[in-house]
Amino acid sequence: MSTSQPMLDIQNVVTHYGKIVALRGVDMTVNAGEIVTLIGANGAGKSTLMMTICGSPQATSGRILYNGEDITGMPTHEIMRKSIAQSPEGRRIFPRMSVMENLIMGAETANNPDTDESLKRVFDLFPRLKERQNQRGGTLSGGEQQMLAIARALMSRPKLLLLDEPSLGLAPLIVKQIFDAIRDLNQSDGLTVFLVEQNAYHALKLAHRGYVMVNGTITMSGTGKDLLAREDVKAAYLEGGAH
Amino acid sequence: MDYFLQQLINGVTLGSIYGLIAIGYTMVYGIIGMINFAHGDIFMVGSFIALILIVAFGITSSLPIVLLILALIGVLIVSMALTSVWGWTVERIAYRPLRGSFRLAPLITAIGASIALQNFVQISQGARNKPLQPLIPGGFTLTEGGADGSGFIVQLSYSQILIIVVTTVLMIGFTMLINKTSLGRAQRACEQDRKMASLLGINVDRTISLTFVMGAALASVAGLMFLLYYGVIDFYIGFLAGVKAFTAAVLGGIGSLPGAMLGGLLIGLIETFWSGYFSVEYKDVAAFSILAIVLIFMPEGLLGKPEVEKV
């Protein structure tokens, strides 16, 4: 892979839900080895962009390139077999499967068939899951479900991890634990992460680069540090968040 | 007591057939939330395919026993394969194009598919009853009754044994398939959250197709069993058997696999005991009263899962 080519290249993507326009021409890149965050208010279209990358819904126009390959029109299950994994909004744990089965589902399409090794890695990352491995997914606490959602995504040994609001509804201590884990994965394994967050302060501190989305378009971009320092970002997204 | 025993044997046999059909209803409901009203007719088609194969290959009870068993296994496998193609085709033509449409749409095409299958078989095979000479005559006599003709003769026929054994083996194998294999896991994942399953790289459409194929294969086994047990079929058998198997699936808890098996067994027993102790004419009324009672007082069925999960 050439260094000039971004891992994920989103070009002028427009997405509709029926007749409603959700994304109005989004441009964005994620380079290999980066943590990139997308912040914005509720309903700005962050999750829609995340799902559009995965082909559900598909973009109405524009292109999405993954390592130079056009994946815009592909069905979701084929995109997800290209070493992309997503921990989606709302976690979407299979409630009537055990923690173990949820994890194995994550490895179902793995390029690397060594499930035991993958299991060991996610249990090292989230030891709580190991204790709960025989419990049904639906009975876990919110924080545990979030850990399980991330762990399940990691089971396929992805190169690009898409994380949608991993901090939503969690206690600060658990948010810190999860963000530490993301940093760890990025630094030690070189995992590329695209993170959608409302918790702008933590997200921008963690990320190398960030984008701000308003009403279906990108309004600002820059390094995490730069965005954190900007007055308009502070005013709009960091009110009370920086403590 | 002897009479009771005989009814029990007959009820378990009938219940096995209903259970095999009920699995197809419950699995399809579990994965796409629709009642496949054409499933009973898939069972009927399976029965006809089995009959055609038996006649075409000249399989009769005069064959040596080993050859007869091998021939029946062959018929079973071929009719499972052919019936599966029918099940797959119905899904492909009548249901898949309507996925994402309003909820009643596939239900209406299901009824259409059911009528189409019935009429197709009626026209291509004729409307008359199709009899089959008993292939597996004989059986065990469990109690002889008194020499003066008092008492009751309890019979356990070889075909009943065959039905109960084959059903038990299939259900064990099938439960293992659902619980232990990656295909089974993919099916359960699609059942619980189709979008998430696709995000994990599962081909949801293919998984749904395979669910129809598996349901049709089991229905075709039921079709062969029905043919062997009753020795007569017609183009209309799918309707009544289908509705009863559907009742069984609801009784057991629609969407639940063990529920479908238990429900099938119970409907078979209820129907048989009602016929044996009360009135044969009203056996269907008894079976369908169960459907009404369950729907009113226990809509989630015996082994159904509660609707609400902690998220």
From TrEMBL, chain B:
Its main location: membrane. CDD domains: TM_PBP1_LivH_like. The keyword Membrane applies. Belongs to the binding-protein-dependent transport system permease family. LivHM subfamily. InterPro entries: ABC_transp_permease, BCAA_transport_permease. It comes from the Bacteria. It is a multi-pass membrane protein. The lineage of its organism: Bacteria, Pseudomonadati, Pseudomonadota, Alphaproteobacteria, Hyphomicrobiales. This is Branched-chain amino acid ABC transporter permease LivH. Keywords: Amino-acid transport, Cell inner membrane, Cell membrane, Membrane, Transmembrane, Transmembrane helix, Transport. It comes from Roseibium aestuarii. The chain crosses the membrane at residues 12-35, 42-59, 65-90, 102-121, 158-178, 208-229, 285-303. It is found in: Cell membrane.
